[in-house]
Each structure stands twice: as structure tokens, then as C-alpha cells.
Amino acid sequence: AAGVIQSPRHLIKEKRETATLKCYPIPRHDTVYWYQQGPGQDPQFLISFYEKMQSDKGSIPDRFSAQQFSDYHSELNMSSLELGDSALYFCASSFARGNEQFFGPGTRLTVL
Amino acid sequence: DAKTTQPPSMDCAEGRAANLPCNHSTISGNEYVYWYRQIHSQGPQYIIHGLKNNETNEMASLIITEDRKSSTLILPHATLRDTAVYYCIVVTDSWGKFQFGAGTQVVVTP
User: Is pLDDT of B1 > 80?
Assistant: First the structure.
């Protein structure tokens, strides 16, 4: 069965650079969620989109922005990267809000 | 969303049942109980969820107390591949965002 696809899987950036993470949901899923998991921490909700509109917002820094496109894929844009942004970033998708979420393999971002 | 409390760690012998408790005493009537697990930095994997009734699927069983203030995830025959952090999450049906708590580190030993 098709799963959530995230790209790239690994990304190394310098401080103050920008990064774009991409998420391709499971076909026919209309809701996308982004989570951040720092080293040794539990995943933290960042932001979600339902039918291409922002649905909910968590602890997402102002330096980050995200959107969901007409084909339902989503991109997380991160600017002015800081060392503390080094983390695993997971995308999850679901069919409508409130249903089980299926997570992608994650993008490991390292900021040097 | 209601907060959850889980034991930080649990050991289980291979082949035995693993019973993972979760306390969610402030759960509301429209909040579901979800269980996920994360195997060593992989994406969290869906296990099971329920509202009021007990649920069973090919992976596990979920027992929810009648007052819904606690639940137990049962892995019937633990294998070494079940070693993971298990998260109990309470979420409203209309929003779906997950607030991950600390989870239970389960180690299955031979």
C-alpha cells in the first residue's frame, strides 16, 4: 500500500540558511500534519492543513511557514535556521480530520 | 485535549502478553484514545484507537474502562520487533492534532 513520502530524507544546512521539506500524502488523503522531534524528545505538533487550508497551529516558530497545494502535497519552509532546529520532521496524512494519521519516514535536518 | 500518563518503561518477555496502561482521567466525551508506537526514530506507527468500546485488530487489543478514565493496550504475543516507545494519545474527533506525551519504552527480551 502507498505510504506517506517525505523528501529529502536527510538535509544538512548552515545556520541562517533556508530549508524546504516536502510531504506527499497517501492518495485520497486530504489532511496533512507536520511534527518536529528533537533529539531525545517526543514529537511535537507544528501545523496541519485540511483541504488546502490551515487547520490548526501548534508550536511552530514564526520563521517557519507551510502550505498545502492543489494536489494535496505540503511543504514546510524554514528560514534563518538555528542550531536548535536540528530535528526529525515528520509529516502525517489522514482522510479528513480526526481519523488515524499515517506518518512518513521523516526528514532528518541537521543545522551546522 | 486531555493529558495522558504512562509508565516510563516496561520490560516484557518474548512470547508473553504485554499490557500497557494509560491514564486519561480528564478525557471528554468526544475524545478518542489512540495508540501509536515509534521504533527507533522511524515514523510513529498507528496501532489502534477507540472511543468507548473495546477494540481488537491484527496488532493489538484496546481495553477502555467504563468510565473512560484509563485504558490498556494489549500486545498478545510480544516479539523482539515490538521493542519501541508506545504512545497513548487522546484527541478530539474534529481536529485530530496529536499531543504526544512521554510514552512508555517497551523492551522485549528473549
Answer: no
